[in-house]
Amino acid sequence: MTSIKDSKCVLVTGATSGIGRALAQCIARLPSKPCVIAVGRRQERLDELAKEGLETVQLDVEASYDALKKFADEIILKYPNLDSIIFCAGVQHEFNFKGEVDLSNVVSEININYTSVVALISLFLPHLLSLGAQGRKCSIIPVTSGLAIVPAPWVLNYSASKAALHSFSVSLRAQLKNTNVHVMEVIPPLVESELHDAYGTTEKLSRFWMPLEEYTTKTMEGLENGDVYITTGNIQGVFEKFEKGKDELAEQFQKRREEW
């Protein structure tokens, strides 16, 4: 088990809005005073975070692999104490497959929500494993969604991208079981966010969503406790119903593979 309170340096993608921004700000205010690196696309919002004392780096996670590698290499060089990464960057599109579908948005959504996260994990993992071998506890923390467990049909591709990241996280945890690199997963319910602005559903969803401040407080409790899965609201029951036991099975599968 590892706690965000023990982290010396935390990088947060998607830190210019929503959950990513709120978590970056809260972590920076911890009594342990970790270095927090806020990563996002919007420079003006990064400038605001810099005024609060956070380190900031501009990055579009949909960049090429070479650009992501350059970013990772530069971060590791500048922040050798980096021991925790929270992947919050995300986008959400609505699709109706009975009509015309913009496939460029399908591809972009998969790239941002899933492929870029996997790429960045692969790029940072050697550094984290090296720190772990020195006795440092490290964390990889993808932010998925309750829709990874039970999808919403109008955001079917978003749900699928988060389901892919959830599945990947379960398997990665099994692969890293005997290391000091711990995989935690944040699984939000519907939370107050700009994510829904593009499709004009913000006002309607605001009747049902969990306020961002309340959500952040509960999620920080999970991060500080070192919970493997950080679920809140109605997602707690959904997770218990559909996901219980998956980690144990994944570990069994991994053990069998290693015995082949």
UniProtKB/TrEMBL annotation:
SUPFAM superfamilies: NAD(P)-binding Rossmann-fold domains (SSF51735). This is NAD(P)-binding protein. Gene3D superfamilies: NAD(P)-binding Rossmann-like Domain. It comes from Laccaria amethystina LaAM-08-1. The keyword Repressor does not apply. Belongs to the short-chain dehydrogenases/reductases (SDR) family. GO terms for molecular function: oxidoreductase activity. Keywords: NADP, Oxidoreductase.
